[in-house]
Design a protein that fits this description.
The structure is a homooctamer. By secondary structure, chain A is of the alpha/beta class. Chain A has nine helices and nine strands. In chain A, helix 1 runs antiparallel to helix 2, helix 3 packs across helix 4 and helix 5 packs across helix 9.
Chain lengths: 255, 255, 255, 255, 255, 255, 255, 255
């Protein structure tokens, strides 16, 4: 800023030019801090995830490569078959570990020498039906990358609330800090779980359901209307957001 | 129809005139049947209810009077104070019994000599909160006018699902044929009840709730999305409809 | 619970450990009852249905097999061609009866030695148009599995309310206990039927219709707004729910 | 336009000035035609109506006075008590006829020497319930101001489709050219009427109804989804629009 | 009805049986009138149209054949290629005339000996863009089948309101009785036309448009909100309904 | 259960009676556990709050009194003036402490001998505008009743995101465990805060805003769409839910 | 930042403490820039406006007073009578000029010595109906405070698009840089104006209109769907936003 | 008009015929002006764009050819592969320059002898994510055809607000007159940019996002609710509209 003012005094630049440069200078300063912010954020352990949807395989590859240079690992979500093949072809070798989660549509690529640091947070994930599993798996991989222990309990085909009690009891015994509950349709499961446990519960509405309230809207509304204290919500199908929030909470509790 | 055609042939009327009269004749015939239908309906025991909202007190009075002539009783719903005063002033005498339900905003006026015929149907009504009670009371009065025994269980001020179990158990012991469950907010109670009993359950969404899903829309969606077989739904705050349907079912089961 | 407290007194476990175990114990107790509830529900005759949508053929096969071990029959709904082929290939043999309902997308597999117990309930199903038939067939198969006699009347191609009167009259003569009416578009048929008969009517909105009110929303709203007492509603396209509720009512009336 | 170009050539104005004037000239020309259009429109018989809502009594008075100068009559709709008093006070004298329709919230002020010209169109207006009457009355006054004969049939308090047949038959006998049907709630009446008569039917959804589809939205959707040919729709509560369209059609048919 | 009562008196049937038969009798009577109604309706000239969507080719063929037996013509709308081939294969011979409108997805099959009776109604159809044409063509074919003369003016590719004036002027010269205006996007064209002509205008919202108000909802709202008297509306893409209503009006005006 | 079976064997009751009693027994068992659950929940520190809206002053008084007997404190939310007067009149004496929060519409009544147990959780509350303060105060009182330290920063009248930085910095210095951010209008503040801190953030949409997205819907959508990890949401205006969840998290972190 | 690190090295603070302080430091830095931004913004000429709605008169007074100290003027919008009286009482004296715009609900208080600097931008404001005027007046006052010349053309009571042409022509002659068009109902006027002029047009939907598309939603959708290039939109009733944007554009064009 | 009246006087035509001709004459006059308007509009530099969606390749070709005759260039948007091939095949020769923008789905065909006239307006385009780029490119091509200089800054794969500061600073240094900001999801970027720069900002909501607020609706609402003065909005994905408005503003500012 000083330089600009000096140039102005020395009549090297006009007032209009100086005004323009001062405005640009202001924006750059904000930008510098914004960049710092990003680095700090990364340091706290929420990894950036490459959302592959609507990118070409080549584009995904380039971003992954650039990530691996600075961070020793890279996470890709919502990939398609073509993108997956390109990645497998490139990184399936002695230098990298590839974790391919086909259900959750997440790939984790890690330098052989690297491992996610354990943080001691313990998070439970419960699903109510088959269609909830991909979103649950997305949450699981984020949680693992943030150093949490994850205990999952997925329904494997038939509706029935009674199936959740035994694994929920196990979760409590193991000392979970947070429980993520994925549910579509009428979305009542997160409220039920929140009334049974005394740890925070994160509800993830799933884009199932039909007729009035279809595509997860019914589940979202039920969770928002629920009277159970301790229940918080993220957007429909937002497994990444639920996982990141749960990890933040669980790891701090574990300290 | 014959007369019209005869007049046509006798050239008493023109073809255009005949056509016009035949059309009118057709409509009148349909109307005759429609009228018959109304009488039959009344006979089966669903009473016509005078919806007082947006009528002047005088207008309500006239309709009530005309009803009392042909039927020995009259039911008024959603009345206001002014309408109520007019009715009390007119009918509080030796000829009539007045049942004034201020919570449900229903007045029943009966000839002293008249009583609703007992039908043996037993219906339970459960509410989840304070704001559900007016609608529940509306249902109750219809049920009683249709000859049913009614067992009610209303929450008296504090949220808590545990309060419904004991009265629900009582209802089962007494042999309820149908259970009506009124619920606003997230509207999960009807689904819970439907999973505990093996009689049909009628869910009535109540226009409470706030934010996303306010005014009963959240409750309606939850009930429609619910997986519990045996659960059916009527429109938001439709106590009259729920009561009439429950009575139809319960009285037939009781036979 | 006693054991945990004893261990605590004997100092075998810490207070924290005891608290954790007591919480888990509580959840397990609720779970036990929830499980009992499921068995009771099954006993009352509402069969669990395997919703095949978004499952792999292998997964469907495994669930079907596990069902057949404990129950002698299995019902699969909303299947696709690949799932169907897998099932036909596996179960089309001397041990099983296969009922494949391609319109309703329902398959019933039964042990040759097994038959659904007759319950004497009689249910009528009426559809207003071609696109209503799959949902009607879904309801029909559930009704049959719950022991009901089913009388159907499907429109076979041309709009026209006059086509329903003759079969409706037949249904009444045969003594139907409940009528299910499937309707899309403006969805007025259930209200018309409810005004003509004195048995309960279950309206099923169908996801047809176009423009404002498309995908069954118009039909659902009309049914909810309808003034006809005796009309109850389930969610759009919910043939299973309508069938299960109708069977519950009809079988109890038939007793 | 010529003058502008001439001034430009004579260098009385600059090119920029000429451009600006040419643009303004264009807009004025369009405006001239637009004004002509308005006079022509008035001549065809659709009167301009002064929508009083959100105007001060003084403002309404001024507009009315200016109308009366050029047209010998003036129509005010949706007035409040204060506006009405002002008008009555001013125009209740030997020079004017005042027609005050308190139900429809319409006032017609006419020079004693003036009468609306008879046009021979005959229009029927049918309402399904009490809350439909104000809108029906609004339509009626417009129709009368456009020279039509109007036959009304208003329900006076109790639901029941059978009440419309007899007056509908009368309307047909009298040779109605168009029928306007006002209906709230599930809004099925216009479709029923359209299936019984062979003249065009204009459906007016009324802002009654409750729960899902409240405020006339359910009625509007039902009318739009209706399969009955011959049924057209205007916006919720738009009595003025329905009346004006009906008069246009009826008067041309009557010629 | 008499017979039933006689049988009851003669004790050939029980009271219960009689009650059941009387109810069925009532429904059959209503049905008889409903059937008569259908025949009358057909006679007034609104032809029944076979909506081919979601029917098998064989099913379409059967309905068409049954229609041709009683009526000498048959109209199929919204057909697909497979259905079209089946129809062409069957009816392209010396006995029938085939009119295949590929834009409007309408096929008219007529007995060589048959022609639609001329009714003298004249209807104009105006479209604002390319995507409006299929719906306009649907309206056109119905109008022709109902004996109207049709004058169309379709935009052939570029937006621009100025293109409608010249053909609209032609329509007025030729004496159109009604104008149908199809418009998507912001849907203002019907209001503009209604302000320029003094005949009724039927607006057909078209399911184009994007973002907020997409799929014709924006166009529908604009037409309903429009202040132009003389404008009435049908549902989005409802070319059939617009055509049938326009023909009813135009043919009566032409008389 | 044993007794029922014994009575059955001893033929004291019929099979039907036994079945009915077993069903009732089952429901009572579930109810027992549900009751236990309620006591456990209270023990964990989420106090039950008496939602005063739509209750009579007398009714509120009775519930409060019954609470004070068993718990030594009572919290009333969303009260009106009449209810407040009744409470002040009754409890403003030597036995009780009254904390009346007129902004948040919350009253806390405590036995003089009683104090909420300190739990060491620290929670920050930030608001973006004036209309957010009542909801923020509701959250604050719950937090205090659950033993948390609360740091608030409320905007006092003028929009401007710059005002939040200094208090946010203070909150971080003091070691907040969770930040609650209340925001209406476009609702971006919670996302901004979540990108600046590394503790969990709970967004509370406030029912302000106008036009498209009014009544907090825009704010809710923005928060759900936000990409910031660590951000969770409760329903519009749900100060109680946000406070209870924040306390659960903060107190566990503080341990 | 340096100091914190130094203290850490000197072991005056722990690592945990240092981390906490660094985070706080970062937030403060962002805050500093944010504050600078606010000052810069004010300098560019968009004045901060005190939104009086939901503030007490005393609160409004305090904010106004604090503004007047640093800026020599203050603008209050959406005030009520009580707030207005308080302001008049306080500032109606020799030191200040008070401009009270009762239609637009805006008060401008200026030091006698102060005047808004003229910027030469010229902006036209056109309204379609009575209910658009308050919003137009709000825009006008902002424009004047930002130094623009404003030319208004308000409809004074009767619908009719022809009334806008003459003043629009005047605006063009006077060289307007931007035109703001306020419109409710079907909201077509902004599109019409945008097709007549070659300067940018800002459409402001007004919260009038009824039925489907009520409260300005129809007008907003029409403006967004409009094909006219040069038309941009702000939220419903957002006169302030439209005025500020128009001034920014007009003043830059005038330079 | 005179001729018609003369013919009437000379009794060459009847009164009815004259009336009809006068009406037609009026419409033609309006049409003439409308045509003039179109030519004027084109002259101001907003080019007409051929929206290829839902047109056959042959149809597109014909329109393009007709445009090239009168204007020396032609712009096609939203083309598909088949349309593109047809165009390339026809116009890739010595007479024309072809600019094919596959990202933005825009083709510009220019006579070799023709170039868009430079207008000196400078416009910046900023996108927040990958899916915003096609719409941004659409805006860019329109801007270039209207003679503007365009500076773009597209995110190339990873979320992060910090990436926009540096290019935004560059834009300010280069003196942009307007900034277009495309954003989906929660859509906050346009508000952020508007708070950093003092030139007008046009927000373009992009049809990305998921769950509640999907398909750009969340982004649109956020932009409309934003408090930042200087921010205006166009419809979701409307790159063409944003580009045309920006060019109008920028070119006038540059003068």
């Amino acid at each position: 800023m000083k330089n600009i003012l000096k140039d102005l005094i020395d009549e090297k630049i006009s007032i209009e030019e100086a005004e323009k440069l001062l405005k640009a200078d202001h924006i750059e300063n904000v930008g510098e801090l914004a960049k710092l912010d990003v680095f700090r954020k990364t340091r706290t352990g929420v990894p950036e995830v490459i959302y592959a949807q609507s990118k070409t395989p080549q584009m995904v590859l380039e971003i992954v490569t650039s990530f691996l240079k600075s961070k020793k690992f890279s996470i890709i979500s919502r990939y398609n078959e073509e993108q997956k093949e390109k990645i497998v072809e490139t990184f399936q070798n002695n230098n990298f570990d590839l974790i391919i989660n086909d259900l959750g549509k997440i790939i984790v690529i890690k330098d052989k020498s690297f491992d996610f640091e354990k943080q001691n947070g313990i998070v439970g994930i419960i699903t109510a039906g088959m269609s909830d599993i991909p979103v649950a798996e997305e949450a699981k991989e984020i949680l693992k990358a943030m150093g949490c222990e994850v205990i999952t309990s997925y329904d494997i085909g038939i509706a029935g609330i009674h199936r959740i009690f035994s694994p929920l009891s196990d979760m409590v015994k193991k000392g979970v800090h947070v429980v993520i509950v994925c549910a579509g349709m009428e979305g009542t499961l997160p409220g039920v779980v929140a009334s049974l446990v005394d740890v925070p519960v994160i509800g993830v509405p799933i884009s199932s359901g039909y007729g009035l309230g279809a595509n997860g809207k019914g589940a979202l509304i039920t969770m928002l209307q629920s009277c159970s204290p301790g229940l918080m919500v993220v957007n429909i199908d937002n497994g990444f957001g639920a996982g990141a929030s749960a990890a933040l909470i669980a790891n701090k509790m574990a300290k």
